[in-house]
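Q: What residues go here?
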């Protein structure tokens, strides 16, 4: 598309990550005129932006990939159990080439505003490149963890060194050899990058506000026999994951952690620890995410591992989480994280006892001392699930913006639609399982449901589809209610918006899992899109 023209399309997709690319492929196959707007310079979404050292997936490669094309999964060769960011990006590029997707994508183009026109039943979109596009459908495929969180500290502008955010890592890479590096944060991004930064930097100082629970990834190269064996049963495996709870094959044990002998409990926790999977530990008993006492047993098991790995008992205790039930803030998978604190060039600063006072020209002032730094890495995470949806101005029916509508927290029907915003679809939006599952399985489910819905609307010659307020309120209450049966809402997590100052506290993901959610969505569709108003 030409930057100066006004264009009319059937559908516009925002984002060329995993969800946007598949959405493009699906809508194209329906014969629609569809185009993708992408702020980055190429495909990949989160994997285009997050290039910090050590960035890799914590869902196994075989599962963290598209399932929609049987040939694709046979053709592509993963080299490690957990793929690195460059390998995943290479895969996304391969997919874009294979399906010739780039010809319908505009890169370096950020959607600034989308305004609904009730008369023409179209969305008018404007971009930072001066484009104006009318489209019947607008699909937000902007990702759940794509709006970086940039906390501010006094004196930041005085700091003469370099500041970086893990989610916006420079593409040319950063050489920290011989430099004094500070990392703020100890979530997944920090936990992956700290071991590698420590190997390169002269001195690494980690500024920790809340210690995280992390398990060893047990990553390893994939051998040809494993790959061949897996590929032979790939279809069967995909089908099973599609109908699983978390989008990966993990079985939740039937017994309570409180009902077995200590030795049996330890044996299971140990096996889960050694399995190197994200979901294994919390699935090893039925009630770890429901019963605080059971949960504490798993938490203590991990704390015991920290004491075992970290030489200095004071540092081990500093690294041990006590302020939230294990799993209520997202678990991390790491390679050598705790052992990194045994290195002589690594220091852990506990911000609860030595808070950051300010940045200075040469480093950071914490507690009553100054720490000299050349580079400060913000591993401070994202404005999750709603940040990227609320970044552009989305103006629905009656001039109400999405920001206004969601002022008290996001409200959606099935995570995909919100009343007052007809023909707007939010892939893996708040109220869908998304971040609590293997994202790829959830993405495919939401994309396929949306494509089928659009195909149906086209067949009906419908002008618009809009979630009903009642259906939306019912869904929002249901999402909150089921989360309330678990310990999840008790952790101050980004699932709840707790990491962003002033953000309403709403438990955003749908906890019941992929299979239940799929059944609900399919049932809604089978009943003439129950809970939606279709206008002709
Ligand atoms: P995160 O989990 O939200 O961690 C952010 C860290 O920064 C936390 O330790 C937080 O402390 C700290 N922090 C934030 N603001 C701060 C401030 N003002 N002062 C001091 N500390 C501050 O973010 P993330 O590590 O980028 O991970 C986000 C999510 O992305 C993960 O949970 C995961 O879902 C996904 N992710 C996945 C992978 C993977 O697949 N391997 C890798 C990276 C990220 P508090 O806890 O006290 O708020």
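A:
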């Amino acid at each position: 598309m030409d930057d100066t023209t006004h264009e009319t399309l059937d559908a516009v997709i925002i984002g060329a990550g995993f969800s946007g690319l598949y959405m493009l492929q699906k809508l194209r196959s329906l014969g629609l005129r569809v185009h993708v707007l992408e702020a980055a310079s190429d495909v990949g979404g989160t994997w285009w932006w997050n290039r910090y050292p050590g960035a890799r997936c914590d869902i196994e490669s075989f599962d963290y990939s598209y399932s929609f094309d049987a040939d694709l999964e046979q053709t592509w060769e993963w080299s490690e159990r957990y793929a690195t960011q460059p390998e995943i990006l290479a895969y996304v590029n391969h997919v874009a080439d294979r399906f010739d997707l780039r010809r319908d994508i505009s890169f370096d183009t950020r959607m600034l505003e989308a305004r609904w026109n009730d008369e023409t039943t179209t969305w008018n979109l404007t971009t930072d490149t001066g484009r104006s596009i009318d489209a019947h459908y607008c699909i937000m495929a902007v990702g759940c963890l794509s709006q970086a969180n940039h906390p501010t500290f006094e004196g930041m502008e005085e700091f003469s060194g370099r500041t970086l955010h893990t989610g916006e890592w420079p593409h040319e890479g950063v050489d920290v050899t011989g430099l004094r590096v500070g990392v703020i944060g100890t979530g997944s991004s920090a936990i992956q990058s700290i071991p590698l930064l420590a190997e390169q930097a002269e001195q690494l100082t980690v500024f920790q506000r809340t210690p995280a629970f992390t398990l060893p990834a047990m990553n390893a190269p994939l051998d040809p026999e494993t790959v061949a064996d897996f590929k032979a049963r790939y279809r069967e495996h995909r089908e099973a994951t599609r109908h699983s709870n978390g989008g990966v094959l993990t079985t939740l044990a039937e017994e309570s952690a409180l009902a077995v002998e200590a030795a049996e409990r330890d044996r299971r926790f140990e096996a889960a620890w050694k399995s190197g999977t994200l979901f294994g530990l919390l699935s090893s008993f039925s009630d770890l995410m429901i019963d605080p006492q059971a949960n504490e047993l798993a938490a203590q098991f991990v704390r015991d591992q920290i004491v075992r790995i970290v030489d200095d008992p004071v540092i081990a205790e500093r690294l041990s989480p006590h302020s939230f039930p294990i799993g209520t803030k997202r678990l991390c998978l790491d390679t050598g994280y705790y052992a990194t604190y045994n290195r002589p060039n690594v220091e852990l600063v506990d911000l609860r006892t030595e808070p950051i006072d300010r940045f200075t020209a040469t480093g950071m002032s914490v507690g009553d001392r100054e720490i000299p730094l050349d580079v400060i890495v913000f591993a401070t995470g994202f404005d999750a699930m709603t940040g990227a949806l609320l970044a552009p101005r989305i103006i629905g029916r009656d001039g109400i913006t999405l920001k206004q509508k969601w002022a008290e927290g996001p409200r959606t029907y099935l995570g995909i639609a919100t009343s007052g915003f007809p023909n707007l679809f939010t892939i893996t939006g708040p109220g869908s399982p998304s971040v609590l599952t293997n994202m790829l399985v959830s993405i495919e489910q939401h994309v396929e449901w949306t494509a089928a819905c659009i195909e149906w609307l086209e067949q009906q010659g419908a002008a618009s589809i809009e979630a009903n307020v009642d259906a939306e309120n019912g869904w929002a209450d249901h999402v909150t209610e089921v989360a309330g049966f678990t310990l999840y809402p008790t952790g101050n997590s980004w699932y709840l918006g707790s990491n962003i100052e002033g953000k309403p506290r709403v438990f955003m993901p749908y906890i019941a899992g992929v299979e239940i959610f799929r059944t609900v969505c399919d049932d809604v569709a089978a009943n003439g899109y129950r809970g939606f108003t279709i206008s002709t």
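A: Context that may help when evaluating the design: Residues 156-223+241-378 form one domain. The first strand starts at residue 6 and ends at 14.
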